[in-house]
Amino acid sequence: MIAESLNMSVGSVFTIMTEDLKKKKLCARFVPHTLTTEQKEHRIASSEDLIAAADEDPNFLKTIVTGDESWCPEYDPETKRQSLEWTSLGKGRPMKVRASKS
């Protein structure tokens, strides 16, 4: 894609990217989803409330019923190879949110 847009050979572009610019291609690391600051704060507050309730009553945890109300199979049309991105040396792996089929 870069080679085509610059009208250069793939090998020349690769050499420039890796040797001159010190870039390398990394696959993105998939994360289930990203949370907003508000969502993170809500999770912390909820967890603190549960811990406080468990401290007050040792049987509290036995009263909790959990479940998953929806099934969302993972759906990711992008292949691992398609997620490759050029990154600078020392920079971490890029992250992509794993999409789910709705």
From TrEMBL:
<dbReference type="InterPro" id="IPR036397">
    <property type="entry name" value="RNaseH_sf"/>
</dbReference>
<feature type="compositionally biased region" description="Basic residues">
    <location>
        <begin position="93"/>
        <end position="102"/>
    </location>
</feature>
<protein>
    <submittedName>
        <fullName>Histone-lysine N-methyltransferase SETMAR</fullName>
    </submittedName>
</protein>
<feature type="region of interest" description="Disordered">
    <location>
        <begin position="75"/>
        <end position="102"/>
    </location>
</feature>
<dbReference type="GO" id="GO:0003676">
    <property type="term" value="F:nucleic acid binding"/>
</dbReference>
<dbReference type="InterPro" id="IPR052709">
    <property type="entry name" value="Transposase-MT_Hybrid"/>
</dbReference>
